[in-house]
Design a protein that fits this description.
Length: 130
């Protein structure tokens, strides 16, 4: 009975001490997670800007092989998801490593702004429209 009466105040004291000790055990930033790069440009023949996001396989810079490309058209938020799925599937030998390229037009208006072709090693090469 005495043990039960002493346990409640001790437990409260433990929780109170934990609140003040927690900042000492806080997490520290050890690195960053980089999914890809985003490039923005505003062609002369349209109003607004275009964002192109590109996710490259982990060994792309060191490799000379060609990679397949997954193009995401006019989707901004799905780029992160598609990049993660592409890395997961490639890491589990379900698909080859791929490049994920996302084109987000937002609220642009005007003539078609770019003409994209598959360039060297599978990366898209774009030029301004006529």
């Amino acid at each position: 009975m005495i043990l039960k009466k002493a346990a409640a105040p001790l437990f409260c004291l433990f929780l109170f001490g934990l609140c003040f000790a927690a900042p000492g055990f806080s997490q520290k930033k050890t690195g960053e997670i980089v999914i890809g790069s985003t490039y923005s440009f505003a062609p002369k023949n349209i109003e607004g800007k275009i964002d192109i996001s590109v996710h490259l396989p982990p060994d792309y810079e060191k490799s000379s092989e060609k990679y397949p490309v997954l193009y995401l058209l006019d989707v901004e938020k799905d780029f992160v998801f598609a990049s993660a799925v592409a890395d997961f599937l490639a890491g589990n030998d379900r698909t080859p490593e791929i490049i994920v390229a996302s084109l987000f037009l937002g609220n642009v208006s005007g003539a078609p702004p770019i003409d994209c072709l598959s360039g060297e090693r599978g990366l898209p090469v774009c030029r301004e429209g006529l």
